[in-house]
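Dear H.,

Thanks for agreeing to be a second pair of eyes. The structure we're designing against is below in token form, covering all 246 positions.
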């Protein structure tokens, strides 16, 4: 059986980081959890907490009651990106954009990438992984190796363990169904759409034709009462890809 002491020993002095772990329960099922080992040096205060998906870090203690059915625990397997996986993600993105009609410019960049030979595709992935935005961004400028890439953020996000997100629709069922239908209808007909609602964030969904004649979709998840947050591009009525934080 897993104990709090065992968890503390596993983390050691590795404080203030969230680690992904795989828990095997007494009934044989397995669950991936994120555990946060918090330490406030000024107050000499520390505790462990489970961080739920989509939630901010909890400040309550992780108790023996929380882990009473945990038989064993081990670190989750580290995410490894392969060329095959990246290619599959690119093809999925192309398929979504082809069907939705969104972001024809990004679709063309993805098509250009997938037509490159194996060595060139691998080289580009390596450049992204080695330096994230910095080196790759410079190579996307005119005269660079990847001069044809204008939406460099998309290619970076596709290297991440989790590259897609779903639209966080309103909490109430009737409003959720209404907004879901409106978004799907607008995309199908390539119409303008603006949706605003609140849940954990101030959510904004916008669909419109840009001045360049490109039909685009944006998802904004801003902190409540603030103009900062997380920003995504819609690839269809249900999938969005991370673009930037502000």
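And this is the sequence the design step returned. I haven't edited it by hand at all.
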């Amino acid at each position: 059986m897993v104990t709090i002491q065992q968890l503390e020993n596993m983390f050691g002095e590795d404080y203030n980081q969230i680690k992904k772990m795989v828990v095997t329960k007494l009934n044989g099922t397995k669950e991936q959890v994120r555990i946060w080992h918090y330490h406030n040096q000024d107050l000499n205060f520390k505790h462990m907490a489970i961080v739920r998906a989509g939630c901010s870090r909890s400040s309550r203690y992780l108790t023996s009651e929380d882990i009473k059915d945990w038989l064993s625990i081990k670190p989750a397997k580290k995410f490894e990106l392969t060329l095959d996986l990246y290619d599959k993600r690119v093809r999925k993105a192309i398929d979504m954009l082809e069907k939705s009609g969104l972001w024809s410019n990004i679709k063309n960049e993805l098509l250009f990438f997938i037509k490159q030979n194996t060595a060139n595709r691998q080289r580009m992935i390596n450049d992204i992984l080695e330096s994230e935005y910095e080196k790759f961004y410079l190579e996307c400028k005119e005269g660079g190796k990847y001069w044809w890439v204008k939406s460099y953020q998309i290619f970076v996000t596709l290297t991440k363990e989790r590259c897609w997100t779903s639209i966080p629709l309103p909490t109430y069922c009737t409003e959720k169904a209404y907004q879901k239908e409106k978004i799907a209808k607008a995309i199908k007909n390539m119409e303008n759409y603006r949706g605003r609602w609140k849940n954990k964030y101030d959510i904004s969904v916008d669909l419109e034709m840009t001045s360049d004649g490109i039909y685009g979709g944006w998802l904004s998840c801003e902190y409540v009462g603030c103009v900062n947050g997380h920003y995504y591009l819609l690839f269809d009525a249900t999938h969005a890809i991370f673009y930037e934080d502000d």
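Two observations from my side: The first strand starts at residue 18 and ends at 25. The two ends are 43 Å apart (CA to CA).

Warmly,
E.
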